[in-house]
């Protein structure tokens, strides 16, 4: 049980670090790629998709957290982005939308991988 | 064992799942990567490492840094005050303007890009189909054509300045591109600014000219004549207003021959456009009467054009006359010298149209406010003079009803081929639009169907505004100031002036001259033509010249020691030239009269006196009309509510303070009074008010109606207009006032409750400073506020005012030098996350000022050291 939890956490952290690092380079689609990888692995290790989705969300939350830690006005920026995008002008809207995009990408990637991957015959 | 049916269903589910996953993934990645319609590409936009989030980096307080700015010849510094005011010191004039371009872009890049896109008809690329109407209008009108024409004529110091400025802007754009730290508006739209060019700066000048000078009055006149009839229209919207006003130029007037307009600057079309005379056959309705022939067709075309204009973003054309500028000297000033006050009343937005800056270089020592996108200080001071501007309001927009067949129009006895300018308008989330603009000798055709209407707008005349601006920045006396304005053609502006030179003819060493010079082109048409209406385009009513420079409105060192401009008609009724009608957005004159009265009767004036006047909430019209109202109500049978209201009006000081209940009653009464008198006529004439809510709807925003009712109430209380179209309306002004008062009390009781003591003006009147992008959540307010359109601290744009003092400045000029204080409602940064986004609003709101940094001074905040 403890070993499974450790693997779960390790996968989530790895995904988070990779997603955060590549986000800084403008690779916004990496959560989707992580989802594909998780989808393929999930055929063998169920639960990895959840870890990947959490990792993807954490990976996009991490730069925002660092932004705020460095003293940048992350909340005010989130408010401005929501307003400029024509959304209700609240910081939470942008933050939730950002993290939701990461989660959606990872889920879609996982779904695609599972749907297209060859499965073993049950006969 | 697997049965065929089970296997088939499982296979089908698997296929369905695969198809669903592929489609969902493709859709998701497609929308995130490329956007859909007006939905931006959210993947890169919300990428927390590179997307719109990076705009947070520009939201922190400015820190001292060395910065590399390619193109600088010598190092330069930009120091800031704690509030964000910037002061540039450069060892070379070229470097000064390069640093200014860099500074403007650093703080206002998206504002600058939005403004140039607006003028160049490229807004839809950023904002989508909703901005297409604006793009089509601007490309028809031709700010871009004019700017290109102007750039071809720009020479000397102005050319060098704008080239250096453009390089500074592009240095910032290159840095932002390299760092990926774009303002969020670009990242969200996925459209990034192209390199800055000198033409872009001239386009921004054109946008300002349009907002100050492009009017629709002749279109309104065409509709009013059709609805109310020519006699009533000219009686109620006369050329010379019905009320008394206070001009700053009282004459005697010079009647000199008109200055001819050079052929190559007569319209927005390139020189040589009039070509291909094909046949000398007169069209059926060619007119020689000075009026266009078919009034129904002209009114329909006017309505069509007004409909188009109503789709434009707010404030794109001129609507409100609200600026103030005053100067005093001599005995009026405490300690001698001169004092100049200026508060231009423009749309109040976040970010502001202004950027405060001090410039110091070998050739320039000036401070005040600049316009992002344009090099130089527009309103401010140097070591010798101070200056400010108000809009002159004269008629600068002439409309011509053209006779058209195919691609030809009839002019001066022949059919001529129209010039066609073709444009491509990219639309975000929509198909690219192709636009062809027909241009006659008068200017661009603005209507697309029915009667073709061309517009000859003075803003399309190439104008060396930039050269004039830089000349003013360097001027040290009245003669140099006047000389600098020689090339200024549009928009016509009252340039208020003060200096610290000795006063001519004053042997006691008195210093401080003051004056006003209303620079610009005032178009004149031949006698018999009616420029307040669309005129025939057949040639007989073409512009015959402009008022010569020495005869345009001006005043210098008047014996009263006061000059005041507040958009009032600048000249008296005997001025020998046409400067527009009462409906050309001239202010009714209340603010100017109040300023003359206040400043003229005062002694020992100081900067604080001028500042106090700028914040005055006294409504001068109320001071004239309320006593008449109280007299009219004297014998009336009033309800208890009405008696309470009368009591508050009787003790009122005419101040439109946010707490005042009398202010609420007065304003509601005045609206109802206008309505009681004019609405029956409007209904009987079926005036289509909806076609131009600002120009055709009965209300305090239509200055001629205010002036009429003021004049009738004070001097002609039995004017026939009170009796209405049926002849059975009110007997006189007193009866109409009593009825309007009853209506006002009834309206307020139902909307604010039955206790008049709670009817504070701030409950129904507010100010708001919306975001320049129009997005909710990025503006300020609405916040309960005092003022109205007639107070010096003007509040215009409706009961939630969005137009008012966009900058308040008081400059003191004496033997010790020239200094100024000022404030504008906003902040130096356009980034909503910056501490300098709206930090000046509380000061502005409370009527406080900050010292304008002197040229070459070091601020008490951070400093950037720029090197090439």
Strand percentage of chain A, roughly? under 5%
Q: Report the span from N to C terminus of chain A.
A: 31 Å
Q: Count of DSSP helices of chain A? A: 5
Q: In total, how many beta strands of chain B? A: 32
Tell me the overall shape of chain B: globular
Could you say what the CATH topology of the domain at 620-654 and 659-764 in chain B is called?
A: Penicillin amidase (Acylase) alpha subunit, N-terminal domain
The average pLDDT of chain A is 92
- Using a beta-carbon cutoff below 8 angstroms, give the protein chain pair with the largest interface and the number of residues from each chain: A-B, 50 and 46 residues
**Outline of chain A:** elongated
Order of helices and strands of chain A: HHHHH
Walk me through what this model shows.
The complex is a heterodimer of chains A (about 120) and B (about 850). With about 120 residues, chain A is mostly helical. Chain A contains 5 helices and no strands. Chain A has one domain (about 1-115). Chain A has helices at about 1-25, 30-40, 50-70, 75-85, 90-115. The model of chain A has no long low-confidence stretch (mean pLDDT about 90). With about 850 residues, chain B is an alpha+beta fold. Among the domains of chain B are: about 260-315 and about 395-460, Penicillin G acylase, beta-roll domain (Roll), CATH 2.30.120; about 620-655 and about 660-765, Penicillin amidase (Acylase) alpha subunit, N-terminal domain (Orthogonal Bundle), CATH 1.10.1400. Helix content of chain B is about 35%, strand content about 15%. Chain B contains 24 helices and 32 strands. In chain B, the strands form 8 sheets. In chain B, strands 1-32-2-3-7-8-9-10-18-19-23 form an 11-stranded mixed sheet, with helices on one face. In chain B, strands 24-4-5-29-30-31 form a 6-stranded antiparallel sheet, covered by helices on one side. The radius of gyration of chain B is 29 Å and the shape is globular. The relative contact order of chain B is 0.15.
């Amino acid at each position: 049980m403890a070993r499974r939890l450790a693997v779960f956490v390790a996968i989530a952290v790895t995904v988070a670090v990779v997603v955060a690092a590549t986000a800084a380079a403008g690779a916004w689609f990496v959560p989707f790629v992580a989802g594909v990888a998780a989808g393929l692995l999930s055929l063998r290790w169920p639960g990895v998709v959840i870890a990947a989705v959490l990792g993807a969300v954490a990976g996009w939350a991490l730069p925002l957290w660092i932004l705020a830690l460095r003293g940048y006005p992350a909340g005010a920026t989130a408010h401005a982005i929501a307003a400029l995008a024509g959304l209700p002008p609240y910081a939470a809207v942008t933050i939730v939308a950002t993290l939701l995009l990461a989660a959606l990408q990872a889920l879609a990637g996982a779904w695609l991988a599972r749907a297209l991957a060859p499965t073993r015959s049950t006969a | 064992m697997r049965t065929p049916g089970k296997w088939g269903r499982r296979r089908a589910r698997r296929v369905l799942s695969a198809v669903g996953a592929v489609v969902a993934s493709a859709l998701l990645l497609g929308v995130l990567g490329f956007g859909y319609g007006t939905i931006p590409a959210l993947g890169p936009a919300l990428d927390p490492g590179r997307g719109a989030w990076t705009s947070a980096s520009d939201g922190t307080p400015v820190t001292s840094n060395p910065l590399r700015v390619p193109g600088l010849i010598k190092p330069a510094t930009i120091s800031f005050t704690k509030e964000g005011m910037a002061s540039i010191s450069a060892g070379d004039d070229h470097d000064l303007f390069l640093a200014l371009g860099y500074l403007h872009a650093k703080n206002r890049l998206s504002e600058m890009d939005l403004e140039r896109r607006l003028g160049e008809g490229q807004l839809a690329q950023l904002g989508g189909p909703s901005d297409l109407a604006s793009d089509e209008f601007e490309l028809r009108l031709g700010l871009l054509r004019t700017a290109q024409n102007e750039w071809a004529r720009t020479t000397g110091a102005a050319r060098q300045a704008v080239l250096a400025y453009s390089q500074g802007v592009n240095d910032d754009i290159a840095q932002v591109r390299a760092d990926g730290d774009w303002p969020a508006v670009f990242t969200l739209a996925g459209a990034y600014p192209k390199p800055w060019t000198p033409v872009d700066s001239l386009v921004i000048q054109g946008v300002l000219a349009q907002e100050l000078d492009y009017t629709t009055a002749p279109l309104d006149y065409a509709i009013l004549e059709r609805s109310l009839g020519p006699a009533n229209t000219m009686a109620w919207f006369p050329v010379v207003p019905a009320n008394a006003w206070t001009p700053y130029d009282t004459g005697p007037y010079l009647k000199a021959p008109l200055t001819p307009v050079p052929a190559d600057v007569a319209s927005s079309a390139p020189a040589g456009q009039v070509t291909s005379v094909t046949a000398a056959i007169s069209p059926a309705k060619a007119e020689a009467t000075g009026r266009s022939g078919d009034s129904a067709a002209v009114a329909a075309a006017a309505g069509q054009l007004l409909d188009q204009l109503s789709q434009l973003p707010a404030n794109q054309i001129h609507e409100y006359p609200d600026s103030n500028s005053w100067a005093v000297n001599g005995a009026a000033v405490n300690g001698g010298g001169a004092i100049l006050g200026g508060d231009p009343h423009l749309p109040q937005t976040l970010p502001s149209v202004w950027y405060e800056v001090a410039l110091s270089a070998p050739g320039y020592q000036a401070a005040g406010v600049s316009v992002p996108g344009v090099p130089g200080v527009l309103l401010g001071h140097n070591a010798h003079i101070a200056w400010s501007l108000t809009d002159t309001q004269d008629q600068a927009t002439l409309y011509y009803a053209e006779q058209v067949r195919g691609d030809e129009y009839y002019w001066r006895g022949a059919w001529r081929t129209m010039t066609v300018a073709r444009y491509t308008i990219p639309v975000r989330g929509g198909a690219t639009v192709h636009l062809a603009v027909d241009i006659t000798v008068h200017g661009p055709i603005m209507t697309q169907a029915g009667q073709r209407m061309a517009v000859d707008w003075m803003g399309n005349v190439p104008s060396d505004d930039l050269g004039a601006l830089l000349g003013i920045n360097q001027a040290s006396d009245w003669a140099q100031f006047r000389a600098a304005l020689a090339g200024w053609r549009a928009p016509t502006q009252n340039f208020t002036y003060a200096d610290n030179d000795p006063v001519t003819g004053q042997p006691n060493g008195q210093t401080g001259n003051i004056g006003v010079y209303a620079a610009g082109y005032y178009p004149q048409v031949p006698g018999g033509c009616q420029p307040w209406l669309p005129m025939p385009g057949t040639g007989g009513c073409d512009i015959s010249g402009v008022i010569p420079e020495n005869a345009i409105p001006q005043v210098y060192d008047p014996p009263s020691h006061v000059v005041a401009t507040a958009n009032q008609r600048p000249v008296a009724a005997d001025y020998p030239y046409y400067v527009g009608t009462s409906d050309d957005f001239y202010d009714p004159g209340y603010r100017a009269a109040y300023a003359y009265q206040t400043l003229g009767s005062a002694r020992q004036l100081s900067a604080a006196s001028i500042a106090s006047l700028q914040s005055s909430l006294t409504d001068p019209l109320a001071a004239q009309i309320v006593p008449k109202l109280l007299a009219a109500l004297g014998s009336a049978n009033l309800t208890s509510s009405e008696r309470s209201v009368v009591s508050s009006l009787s003790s009122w000081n005419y101040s439109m303070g946010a707490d005042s209940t009398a202010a609420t009653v007065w304003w509601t009464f005045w609206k109802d009074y206008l309505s009681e008198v004019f609405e029956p006529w409007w209904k009987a004439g079926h005036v289509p008010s909806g076609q131009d809510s600002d120009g055709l709807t009965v209300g305090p925003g239509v200055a001629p109606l205010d002036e009429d009712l003021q004049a009738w109430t004070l001097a002609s209380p039995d004017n026939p207009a009170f009796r209405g179209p049926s002849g059975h309306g009110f007997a006189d002004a007193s009866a109409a006032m009593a009825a309007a008062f009853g209506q006002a009390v009834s309206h307020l009781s139902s909307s604010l409750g039955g206790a008049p003591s709670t009817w504070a003006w701030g409950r129904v009147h507010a100010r708001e400073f919306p975001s320049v992008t129009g997005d909710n959540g990025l503006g300020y307010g609405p916040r309960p506020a005092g003022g109205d359109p007639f107070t010096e601290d003007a509040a215009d744009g409706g009961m939630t005012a969005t137009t008012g003092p966009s900058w308040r400045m008081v400059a003191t000029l004496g033997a010790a030098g020239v200094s100024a204080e000022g404030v504008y409602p906003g902040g130096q940064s356009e980034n909503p996350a910056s501490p300098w986004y709206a930090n000046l609003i509380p000061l502005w709101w409370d009527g406080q000022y900050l010292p304008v940094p002197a040229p070459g001074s070091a601020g008490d905040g951070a400093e950037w050291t720029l090197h090439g």
